[in-house]
Amino acid sequence: MSREGFVLLEDGTRFDGKLCGASSGSVGEVVFTTAMGGYQESVTDPSFAGQVLTFTVPHVGNYGVSEQAMESDRIHVRGVVMRAADNSSDAPTADQGWLDWLEASGIPAITEVDTRGLVRHLRSRGAMRGGIFAAADADTAAQTVEAEPPMDGQNLAADVGPSQVVRHGESNSGPRVAAIDTGIKMSIVNQLVERGVRLDLHPCNVSAEELLADDPDAIFLANGPGDPAALDGVVETVRGVLGKKPVFGICLGHQLCCRALGLETFKLPFGHRGVNHPVKDLRTGKIEITSQNHGFAVAAPNGGLRVETDEPIRWETDFGAAELSHVNLYDRTVEGLTLLDVAGSTVQYHPEAGPGPHDARHLFDEFVERITKAAA
Q1: Catalytic residue of the set 251, 258, 277, 294
Q2: pLDDT, average across residues 132-147
Q3: Residue 251 is a catalytic residue
């Protein structure tokens, strides 16, 4: 039976609703996604660790949940906020209802919330700490939110990655890729394995020497949660492999590679989370619609937070020349980088698009083709 509940933000703003998931409360960074579908993929994406996720699409849960839609082995969000939750399980692919699954997984959720008002508030004031509470918790909710640490400075990658090497595609005959698993999505694993890659997922505390020990054909830097500035150890590992093996990074991996090259990262006001973000390739002029999920971004080489030109920006690094290759057309933030003297490239967005458009999946083809040719 539904119970009265509310979402409370750290600035004191409150949004009432009906609790519909697990009975326990949840606290974290309250963020939103504009994706129209893929709710199960979103909540099982490790990049959402430590966050309470608000869906802008009104109806959530329409087609149930299924094993094939999992992006990891569990739910990573701390709570779910919706306008109109649905517990249907009669879709052909559904294994069970959305709300039944959230409750069984111990994830608090709330429906009948003015999500439009909540998202407008977050866009105006920025993502902030908050939580989902029962009406009976009104007296203690503010103190609970205040006790939650902010996302800045949090190292969450170690909580979502493996503790030992995990191998995928061992029966393949293609190139071997060693990945630093800071929270990789199964969609990324699948895209690489489908292209013949033998993929080894290493814990995020792996050293450069350990990554190179099996003489992989390339290094992959995965997505993941938290503040890239809190992962100096991973940055040093990346510095230890740049120039020795081809490197390709996505999302957090892009940010860590950029930090290894001397660029800074910063927190976005409310992040990029959705499947309709236009990104321009500054080398070709082509625009792709991309899937994104990140709360931090990379500053330009001059320290600015925006890229004001549509020409590729080049500068010198410890590993030779580098070039900013992609820009977000919403806010002109950095979306990609290419190394010109050693083999390496990164993108801030998610070319695997789980969920999202498939405009950028060619990047996996190009990555595998490059390293296959180099290994021949």
Answers
A1: 251
A2: 96
A3: yes
